[in-house]
Amino acid sequence: MHYTLVLLPSVPALFSSCSPAATEAMETFEKRKAETLASMTSSSPDKSPKGSIDEPIIPLLNTINSHPSYFTTSSCSGRISVLSHPTTTTSASTAKKKAKGGKWVFITHHKADPDSLLNLLFPPTSEIKPPTLTDPSDLVLRFEPLIIAIECKDVGSATKLVSLAISCGFRESGITSVSNKRVIVAVRCSIRLEVPLGGGGEGILVSPEYVRYLVGIANEKMEANWRRTDGFLSALVSSGFGGDEVEESGGGQPVNGEAGDEDSWIKSEATDSGDQLNLLSNGKVPDENHVGK
Amino acid sequence: MHYTLVLLPSVPALFSSCSPAATEAMETFEKRKAETLASMTSSSPDKSPKGSIDEPIIPLLNTINSHPSYFTTSSCSGRISVLSHPTTTTSASTAKKKAKGGKWVFITHHKADPDSLLNLLFPPTSEIKPPTLTDPSDLVLRFEPLIIAIECKDVGSATKLVSLAISCGFRESGITSVSNKRVIVAVRCSIRLEVPLGGGGEGILVSPEYVRYLVGIANEKMEANWRRTDGFLSALVSSGFGGDEVEESGGGQPVNGEAGDEDSWIKSEATDSGDQLNLLSNGKVPDENHVGK
Q1: CB-facing half-sphere around the CA of A88: CA atoms within 13 A
Q2: pTM of the entire structure?
Q3: What is the pLDDT of residues B44-101, one digit of tens each?
Q4: Using CB atoms, which residue from B172, B188, B285 is nearest to A149?
Q5: Domains in chain A with CATH codes
Q6: How many Cβ pairs within 8 Å bridge chains A and B?
Q7: What is Dmax (Cα atoms) for chain B?
Q8: Are strands B97-99 and B183-187 parallel, antiparallel or unpaired?
Q9: Rounded to a whole number, what is the distance in Å from the CA of A174 to chain B's nearest CA?
Q10: What is the rounded average pLDDT of the residues A218-236?
Q11: Does the distance separating the beta carbons of A290 and B110 come in below 8 Å?
């Protein structure tokens, strides 16, 4: 499937029935959108150190940007990473560790190669450590799913998008900002891993076997994240995004990205079994069991 | 500091300048609020298996509920848990594991006692396993921070609350639903742990030493979560919540819950160093480094 970026000119005539203030706000929206899309199609690198948009997410971004009420301001398609926090021991008797920034020693937006990570964490010759791991550092392995920030023309447009995203499994989506000028939506969900590995004064506290197991789970989560992303894209298309005639109402049938999903991690997240602190559509936190202490 | 729950009667006269539809919506808000607060103060257990509100969160809930534009619909003060997913091997050659529900084998809303968890995961006499761990199960240790769902009188009230929550470090907050009747805000942040421990066919894949290390980190995160919660409560009070005269504008100076915080985990989350996939206030995902594969 191929999507073409559509640059939308400022069309104040469309808003002639609005108040001057509203018209001005919308003109500004159109202007910001045109500028943002122009920078996306520019051949020069963007402001991130990576310098470009994650390739797997481009069809989704183009589809969102094809709708006159929305444009994407930033995104990540999902990633597996190991972050290193250099640690130093303070002179206090409590010997508390203090972070002084952090850096990635491993990052991929694709599935991770377990051997690459194992070679990094457990180098074959222990005397030759990779430069990134020469200092004692607390290491954390993470999986983080898709996240997109989207500016919306108004609160109504934002509400429709949040509702669609939540129905596709991006249940931590929400309107994060509303001002006279800008309405911002974040699309996100809770498919995550956050695993401290040790690595400071005490050395790495997990085994190579365990790291291989973790990478397997991280890769399953990446696949689940991609399936959910595909489901969101399908739901947007069903709602009229990306077509020649955009359906302003944003209706249509949301597609459940997890239908028929055999992945146990996703099952556990997509159901309302109460094992995640997600909110249900009625604004309730799922019931809690109170088993232990 | 003591807060008293204030039951607010339906006061349609206050909204006499509104349209009939808006008045009706607000009357419904007042009615729902009165019913919800009445159920909170009832001596009978609530609908959750735990049956009651987490004690540490009660001052915060009372403060939010003291404002005429808001009421809390559900909450969790933060928790450390181990979830068990029973696993069975399918007949397929891929031997994929399939989740059939899950249950908590450990949960606390306070700091966790490492010895309790160690005794559960590594019972002193290996022949006597606790009933919860007799079947092969994938175990996941989690820390999940404060989450509150709040119904707001209108989008303007919701926006102010989201803005205040984000300024206090609850950067994953947002308006999750807007309809004619109900506007729902979720207050949440990304202080988390999600650590698979093994426990299925392959047995537990981590050492007791590592579990003790994890519990230490989970307890640090619980403390950080409480500090952030306290900061949010202070910011609400500074904005006029909880006082005799509620300031409808919701202004005031937000308190940064992490000021002077020496906790390395929180430093890493509260700064914009790009190690978390949070959105900045300008709607941008923090810059990404592209280090590895």
Answers
A1: 7
A2: 0.74
A3: 766 665 667 778 899 999 999 999 999 999 999 999 999 998 765 433 333 333 334 6
A4: B285
A5: 29-87+101-239 (3.30.1960.10)
A6: 259
A7: 73
A8: unpaired
A9: 4
A10: 97
A11: no
